[in-house]
Every structure is written in structure tokens, then in C-alpha cells.
């Protein structure tokens, strides 16, 4: 058990330190049955736990997730609750925390109607790019450049000529991509510099299953786009 003072989190580094504090167990713990009974944490498990925790906290995708989280809610309490929601997902088969567990915790803690409203505020072009990313995710491609997403959408448009309009100028397409970045539907991956940010790898930050449902409920969603996102064979459809 750790004692946390619930003040505001001022920076990403401070947030990472707080996560480490919350997730670092004591060498001994009180059993639920009696406060006078103490059980010892297995040293080998503790060593492996701390090693896996170090790896998690060093991952770029985790740091980006934490940075985005504290921009939404900078309270230490909320960050500690996010850690708790991630820990609930631990199982004997997966006894160590992963970035995906924190993403799932995020989707549970954030009001799904808020995400739905954000999706419904997107332009049709932004929605098309979002669906293109969902299709790449379906093929287990977890990071991709804007150009790869654009190619995915244009490929679908060619196969369904007349059903999906993709005759946008390059500046308009790039502006739509920037809008998705600013709305934090996607985030940059890694620290490698690229001459153009549209060549840099990105990944979705939202819950994929919920995104599909939000796209399907988009007012007057183009028929071809709805058919594409709900195509048979999608694990998340």
C-alpha cells in the first residue's frame, strides 16, 4: 500500500514517478483477514515485477499515454485510479502490466458518450481516415504513417468507385490528418525525426471496439464507409 497526496501533476516526468510509486509494492503486505497478519511478497516475483515495470515506464507509447492523460485530468487521484483500473486486468496468465491494459483502463474510465460526440464532430474526410486506421489495426498493423492510411482509403475508394469520394487536395487531406492529431485520436510513435510529419508513424489512442460503434452511429454516414467498417471478418465489427 502506498500513501498518495492528491495534488496536481505538473509534468510528464512527475506523472511517471507517481505511477512508479503507486505500482511499486512493499516487500511485505497486510492480509485482508487481519491487520496484524503480514505476508511476505515473493522476492523473485517482486524482482520480475519491478523489471517489467521499468520496461513499461520506458516505453514511448506509455509515456505518450500518460502525457495525454494528465492533459485531460492532472490530478494525482485520477492517475492513481487509472493505475488501479489497469491492475484489475492482471491474471495468472498475464501477471504483469502492459500498455494495452492502460488503454483499456482509459476507455473504461472515460465517458463513452464523450468519445462518441468527438467522432460525430469529425468531417467525412477525417472519418474516412479514421476508418482506414481501423482497417490497418485489424491487420495487426499497430503503427502507420499518414501516407499509409491515405493509401488504404484511396485503395478502398478505387474498388468502390462512385461510392466513396476521395477527390480532396493534398493540403485538405493533410489538414484532416492534423485535426485527428489535435483531437488526440492518434499520437506520434517513437522519437525518430522525419522531414515531414505525415511520414512519421502514428497509432490510435482510442478504444477500437468503441470507435467502430461510434462510426456506425455517425449521422448520415456514407453507405460505403459503414459497409467498409462493418465488413465480415473484422474482429472488432
Provide an overview of this structure.
The protein is mainly α and 237 residues long. A hairpin with a 7-residue loop joins strand 1 and strand 2. The longest helix is centred in the N-terminal third of the chain and has 16 residues. 55% of the residues lie in helices and 5% in strands. The strands form two sheets. The chain has a two-stranded antiparallel ribbon. A two-stranded antiparallel ribbon has the order 3-4. The two termini are 40 Å apart. The N terminus and C terminus are likely disordered. It contains eleven helices and four strands.
Task: Give a brief outline of the structure.
Helix content is 55%, strand content 5%.
Tell me the major beta sheet.
2 strands, antiparallel
* Beginning-to-end CA distance, first to last residue: 40 Å
Q: Note the run of SSEs as H and E.
A: HEEHHHHHHHHEEHH
Question: Which percent band covers the strand fraction?
Answer: 5-15%
Judging from the principal axes of the Cα atoms, what is the shape? Answer: elongated
Unreliable segments of 5+ consecutive residues: 1-6, 28-37, 233-237
Indicate the percent of residues in helices: 55-70%
| Tally of separate helices | 11
Alpha-beta content class = mainly alpha
Sheet with the most strands: spatial strand order: 1-2
Mean pLDDT: 80
Please tally the β strands and state the result: 4
The Cα radius of gyration reads 21 Å
SSE diagram, text form:
Elements: H1 12-23, E1 28-30, E2 38-40, H2 43-58, H3 60-72, H4 76-87, H5 99-109, H6 112-120, H7 124-138, H8 146-159, H9 170-182, E3 186-188, E4 202-204, H10 208-216, H11 223-229
Antiparallel strand pairs: 1-2, 3-4
Helix pairs in contact: 1-4, 3-5, 4-5, 6-10, 7-8, 7-9, 7-10
